[in-house]
Amino acid sequence: MKHEKAKRIVVISGKGGTGKTFFTSAIASLVSGRSVFADCDVDAANLALALGGAAPAASRRQERFFGGERAVVDAGLCTGCGKCISFCRFDAIHMENSVAQVDPVGCEGCGVCTLVCPSSAFTLEEEMAGQWFVTDTQDGPLIHAELQAGGENSGKLVHKVRSVAEQEAERVGASLILIDGPPGTGCPVLAAASDTDAILLVTEATTTALHDLERAAEVASTFGTPIGVLVNKSDLNPEVVKKARILCDEKGYRWIGDFPYDRMAAEASARLLDPFSLLEDTTADKLRALVANALNMVGLDVVSSAVG
Ligand code: SF4
Ligand code: SF4
């Protein structure tokens, strides 16, 4: 019998530091059934640590990611005619000792120089922009990535992480792919949130964060995917929590709930520990209820021993 396709939940936030990874790992540790995790925060991936998995060196799979192309000159073929300089609209070519030189940072890989050079001195070479990994964590396979410093095309790397997560989900028969999205509202966020079954927006109870939430929700709503809202550190400003609830009512987002500031939760979050490891029972119950609400968006549940 063919395995039913895994549900996909993406956790995003309008800005960094709202506790997104904390709630992602809480869901990861409580979801019933097999799961696969995709850390799409490729500029600052930390889900491998939060899920208690091994560091990238111990990953089951490690592959290079090529984000784009850069022009390379064969100095032996260059006659120093200078034609390429006038055609490169990114000003990425200059002459040194009558040989064309490409500035690797300025080059956009457009390929015009390969077309205009009378000596065919240019080639386009793929440029490594990062790496991606598959690491087996205690909760299931995790696909994560590192965009190297100055590496471009994080949207493309997010896409790669997601496609490997799909393969892993098929392989292990997962019922959930849980995606930790990048912060903000840019192209990598769209790549992380597209083609999902639920979008969980995590924010905190400050006026700025509420604005970020509204912006992120507006972007997320273009997909027509159900959106849930969770407000972290809700006791910072109860007025913001009220406004977030009103926003949910007005826009048809699901209210997942709020989570008051908790010193032990903050410590677990900062130290990337299991979210439940330091919590008092009542706080842990509150967190379990939020996880159950989030999973309910896609018809999944928490493990039965964790309910109540
Ligand atoms: S167009 Fe070709 S031959 Fe002329 S300077 Fe550029 S690389 Fe050299
Ligand atoms: S590939 Fe495009 S940007 Fe790069 S050096 Fe050639 S013309 Fe300039």
From TrEMBL:
<dbReference type="InterPro" id="IPR002586">
    <property type="entry name" value="CobQ/CobB/MinD/ParA_Nub-bd_dom"/>
</dbReference>
<keyword id="KW-0411">Iron-sulfur</keyword>
<dbReference type="InterPro" id="IPR017896">
    <property type="entry name" value="4Fe4S_Fe-S-bd"/>
</dbReference>
<feature type="domain" description="4Fe-4S ferredoxin-type">
    <location>
        <begin position="98"/>
        <end position="127"/>
    </location>
</feature>
<dbReference type="GO" id="GO:0046872">
    <property type="term" value="F:metal ion binding"/>
</dbReference>
<dbReference type="Pfam" id="PF01656">
    <property type="entry name" value="CbiA"/>
</dbReference>
<dbReference type="InterPro" id="IPR027417">
    <property type="entry name" value="P-loop_NTPase"/>
</dbReference>
<feature type="domain" description="4Fe-4S ferredoxin-type">
    <location>
        <begin position="69"/>
        <end position="97"/>
    </location>
</feature>
<dbReference type="Pfam" id="PF00037">
    <property type="entry name" value="Fer4"/>
</dbReference>
<protein>
    <submittedName>
        <fullName>Cobyrinic acid ac-diamide synthase</fullName>
    </submittedName>
</protein>
<dbReference type="InterPro" id="IPR017900">
    <property type="entry name" value="4Fe4S_Fe_S_CS"/>
</dbReference>
<keyword id="KW-0408">Iron</keyword>
<dbReference type="GO" id="GO:0051536">
    <property type="term" value="F:iron-sulfur cluster binding"/>
</dbReference>
<keyword id="KW-0479">Metal-binding</keyword>
